[in-house]
Batch of 3 targets.
Target 1
Amino acid sequence: QVQLVESGGGLVQAGGSLRLSCAASGNDFSNNDMAWYRQAAGKQRELVARITRGGSTNYADSVKGRFTISRDNAQKMVYLQMNSLKPEDTAVYYCNAFVVWLSLSYWGQGTQVTVSS
C-alpha cells in the first residue's frame, strides 16, 4: 500500500511559477515510477510528467521546457516545478506511484492549480 499526499497548488497569474510536492509513504519508494497527472474540468486525466526508478523523465508536449519533475528517494518526495504557467494549465494535479513489481498504481487526492490570465 502506498499513500501519497500532494501540496503546493494554488492561484497564480499567467507567467508565474508553482512547485508541487508529493510525499509518499508505505513502501520502498525508490522502486516506484512516479508521475504527475492533471485533470481539467470536463476533460480526461492526462499525463504531465513521469520519472522512472532510474531517473529517466518524459513530459507531455504541452509542458516541455516549462515543467520539471524530480524526485528525492531519501525523503520519499517527488516534485513538479512549473514555470511560465498558462491558463490552460489550470487543473487538479494528481501524484501517481506505479509499483513496478506489482503492476499497481496509486493516486493522491489531488491539488488544485488555477492560472489566471
Note: The longest strand covers residues 91-99.
Target 2
Amino acid sequence: QVRLVESGGGLVQPGGSLRLSCAASGFTFSNYAMNWYRQAPGKERELVAAMSSTGGSTHYADSVKGRFTISRDNAKNTVYLQMNSLKSEDTAVYYCRARNYDYDYWGQGTQVTVSS
C-alpha cells in the first residue's frame, strides 16, 4: 500500500523555522521525483519545491527561494522541507507528492500556521 505521511507542521511566529518531513512507503522511493506543494485558504494549490529522484536537481517557487530548502534521504525514504524566515503568507496546508512517468501519489497534508 502506497503511503506518503507528512509531519512537522504547526504554529510558528513570523521569522521562525519549521522542518517538514514526508515519509514514503509502498513504492520505490528512489525512482520518484519528490515535490512539496501548499494550499492556502481560498487559493489554488501551488508548487513550493521540487527535487529529482537522484537529488541532483531542484526547483523552488520564487516566493520561497533563499528561505526554503528541499532535501531527500533515499535510504530513509523521506523527503524534507526546511523552512526558514517564515512569513504569514506561508500559512497553508503543505503536501508532498511523489511522481514519475507512470504514477503520481499525494500525502494528506500538514498544516503550517505562521502567526504572532
Note: The longest strand covers residues 18-25.
Target 3
Amino acid sequence: QVQVVESGGGLVQAGGSLRLSCAASGSIYRINTMGWYRQAPGKQRELVAVISSGGSTNYADSVKGRFSISRDNAKNTVYLQMNSLKPEDTAVYYCNARIWALKDVDYWGQGTQVTVSS
C-alpha cells in the first residue's frame, strides 16, 4: 500500500509565503513524477507544478516566477515553495505521486487548504 500525505497549508496575507510538503510512503519501487495540483471552489482541479525523478520541472503559467517545486528522492518527498501569494491562489492543494508498479499508477494526498487573504 502507498500513502501520500501533505502538510504546510494555512492562512496567509497576500504577498506572503507558504511551503507545502508531501511525503510518499509504503510499498514503493520507483516514483516517476511528483507534483502539485489545486482545486478552487467551483473550478476543476489544475496542475500547479510537476517534477520528474531527474529534476525536470513544469509550472502553470499563473505561478511561474512565484512558486518553486523541489524534490528529495531519498525521502520520497516533494516540496512547493509559494512566494508572492495572491488571493487567486486560494484552493485546496493536492499532492500527486506517479509510482511505477509494472505500470504507472497515480496516488493522491488528501489535500491541504491554502487561503490567501487580500
Note: The mean pLDDT is 96.
